[in-house]
Amino acid sequence: MEERExxxxxxxxELSKKYGIDFDKLEREQIKLAKELExxxxxxxxxxxRFGAVESIFIKNKILSCIIVCDKNYEVVDRAYVFDKVRFxxxxxFRAYRELPAxxxxxxxxxxxxxxxxxxxxxLIHPRLGLASHFSLSTGIPTIGVSNSLLDCKIDGxxxxxxxxxxEDKENFEKIKNSKFSKKDLEEISFGKANYSKSSKKIGKVxxxxxxxxxxxxxxxxxxxxxxxxxxSRNLINLPHKRPEPMHLVSKYAKxxxxxxxxxxx
Length: 266
Prior knowledge:
CATH superfamily: archaeoglobus fulgidus dsm 4304 superfamily
Number of helices: 8
CATH topology: archaeoglobus fulgidus dsm 4304 fold
CATH architecture: 2-Layer Sandwich
Oligomer: single chain
Distance between the termini: 43 Å
Structural class: alpha+beta
Number of strands: 9
Shape: globular
């Protein structure tokens, strides 16, 4: 772990020098923007009729951002894409600065706006501000982050469908620490030492849709609750596809566009 952190620090310094990026400033910006998130349902999502999904892929030094909107029957009612030059290097935790401009531009091309958008990336489970959250703040549309990895958070109990994803609530932990608990109690509720911590808050849920498949980590980006984000994700599973169907549809669209672009370039 220490070697990985040293390697990341070295890489960050290298990128900072090469591209003139102030990562500390960007971290502060993420933390500031995160305070604007509203983790509550903007609408009654039982009445939602339009579901979006956005996905970005890279072709050499360019980014292809694709977005689709489908109805309850998974019929695509609108779609758009942007193919542009990549203007920010890849570094963990800062995907939005690399992908967000093209994603937002693709979204703005839509005639049919979705009620909620799935984003292949993290929402609340990001240490500061995930791609799904940043996209929502930029567009005003509720988002659901769907990720394959966790960082600085944990699963409450076994890794099973519906399990809660927890993150330490530092403010609440300080209150607990200063309350009348025994040393043993404090050790048990200390984040990372128990299956469930009273000093933690729920920030997402595990979604497993097929036996033996790897878990997906669902978290709200913005303007939606953990409960609604999970329920919508589960309700939009169309087996045998593992992911929510809008995500499958946008992946299919992105592959089609990529194929066309490669042919044109050849």
